[in-house]
Amino acid sequence: NVDDWDLVNITNPAAHLNAVPSNGTIIRDYANGAIYIAAGGAPLYVSTCAPFNGCAGNVNVDDWDLVNITNPAAHLNPVPSNGTFLRDNGSGAIWRVAGGAPLYISTCVPLGCAGTVNIDPWDVANTSNPAAHLNPAPVNGTAVEGLPSQQYWSFTNGDCFEQPGTLAGAVQIDDSSLACAGVITPLTPARILDTRFGNGASG
């Protein structure tokens, strides 16, 4: 038994509890046996356990938590939190989450990529599937800062738009990953960013 105070005040250091599962935690839906790995608080689907040491140490959870992921009692995020680094456990490709979408990172030199979470590449390839718990494109209003240029961009309907000033809460990514057009007029549509593979398509 624990004091209800701990659950009500889970962000208080005295509670000694995490608000969401720590990165890399493997959870298993006890109802259907589906496996997920936690990244930025979100459960990302695992299609095969072979690359994950057989998913050893997985924790059985109530299916209710996954079905009701937006309920505070589930203690899960519907998508990984901004800034979460994801790594394809097969190819080693790196993505960084911004607005729920995985943005391809071509180099970790300006970012460090600390705390990268190994995930199943199935999730990045199937962002439209609810089990992936990733957005196909950043939600409207998502802000990113390209490095080393320190240029800020915002997203609307999957397009990236250059911004003249700084943007609070911007997620840092490397410039070459953004793949937007070079010098453009602020608030003019840039090249559409393919959030799965980091390739730009003319917009």
Strand content: 25-35%
What share of the residues lie within helices? under 10%
Average pLDDT, rounded to a whole number, is: 86
Order of helices and strands: HEEEEHEEEEHEEEEHEE
**How do the strands line up in the largest sheet?**
12-9-10-11-13-14
The quaternary state of the protein chains shown equals single chain
What gyration radius follows from the Cα positions, in whole Å?
18 Å
Put the structure in a nutshell:
The protein has 203 residues and is mainly beta. 9% of the residues lie in helices and 30% in strands.
For the structure shown, list the relevant keywords.
203 residues, mainly beta, six-stranded mixed β-sheet, four-stranded mixed β-sheet
What does this protein look like?
- This protein is 9% helix and 30% strand.
- The chain has 203 residues and is mainly beta.
- Strand 2 (35-39) and strand 3 form a beta hairpin.
- The longest helix has 5 residues, at 4-8.
- The protein starts with a helix and ends with a strand.
Show the helix and strand layout.
Layout: H1 4-8, E1 26-29, E2 35-39, E3 42-46, E4 59-61, H2 63-67, E5 85-88, E6 94-98, E7 101-105, E8 117-119, H3 121-125, E9 143-147, E10 151-156, E11 159-163, E12 171-174, H4 175-178, E13 189-193, E14 200-201
Parallel strand pairs: 1-4, 5-8, 9-12
Antiparallel strand pairs: 1-2, 2-3, 5-6, 6-7, 9-10, 10-11, 11-13, 13-14
